[in-house]
Amino acid sequence: MDTKRIFVTRKLPEETLHLLRKTYTVEMWEEEETPCPRELLLEKASQASGLITMLSDKIDQELIKQSPHLQVVANLAVGHDNIDVEYAKGKNITVCNTPDVLTETTADLGFSLLMATARRIVEADTYVREDKWQNWGPFLMAGSDIHDKTLGIIGMGRIGSAVARRAKGFNMEILYHNRSQNEDLEQELGATFISDLKTLAERSDFVMCVVPLTPDTEGLLNSEFFSHMKSDGIFVNISRGTVVDEPALVEALESGQIKAAGLDVFASEPIRADHPLVKLDNVVLLPHIGSGSIETRERMAKLTAKNVACVLAGEEAITPL
Hints:
Blueprint: E1 5-8, H1 14-21, E2 25-28, H2 38-45, E3 50-53, H3 61-65, E4 72-75, H4 85-90, E5 94-96, H5 103-118, H6 121-129, E6 150-154, H7 158-168, E7 173-177, H8 183-189, E8 192-193, H9 197-203, E9 206-209, H10 223-228, E10 234-237, H11 246-255, E11 260-263, E12 283-285, H12 294-312
Parallel strand pairs: 1-2, 1-3, 3-4, 4-5, 6-7, 6-9, 7-8, 9-10, 10-11, 11-12
């Protein structure tokens, strides 16, 4: 067996690590939901040639400097804002993510969140469970239509494009804001490129945020943006929490400036029961489960293992950044 060591920062199914265990020494933090403690991560990384990490693991200069054997960091996510990618590359460390395999699953979740928020699904479920349903009325738990409405997508990458295809099935008009135009998608779906966020906010019945977190997108959606949305507009975020000015969103929801929001991500995760968003009935809250299907998470785990195996064998990673 090769003497190289690999550390996995969260419990993964054993079958996804079989390829690595045949050749290398693999250690794994045996908790599914609790992040690996920082001190333990630093200790294990200092001995490791490969790391399989989660978004909650901070792979920064401190860790990289004291990890002389490290050759590859495989993040079990599309996002990689938890990793100092440029510094890692400067140390000849390959950084990988898991694009493509989670695109359709995340788009499913995004559109499900849009639908649940528009039709007040969670609120109506609670209404029944709390034994409040005594009679039927024509406007009982009445929500908003989705079909024939306008969806504004912020970020027309793989996931945004997949969301747009789902929206087309509901005969929605599709607007999008992106760093560049996607002319192929415009021809395929009749989507319209909107160069400024103000116009997108004003014209959209639903706004869905699917942008990666970068210095340019942090705090991108603020009080000014929400002030331009329709009063019956619905906002959905499946990207990163800090893309949104969260206090501004809370204010927009509390004041009725916008109608509702569906959120899978938050500025600080996990949020607690005393968070202002939790107290609002016009918000659907999910625990960052965008790619959370069994099939997709298993594919993601297998891809991270393959990336690590490739790099440690002296081959090119499958999905390097």
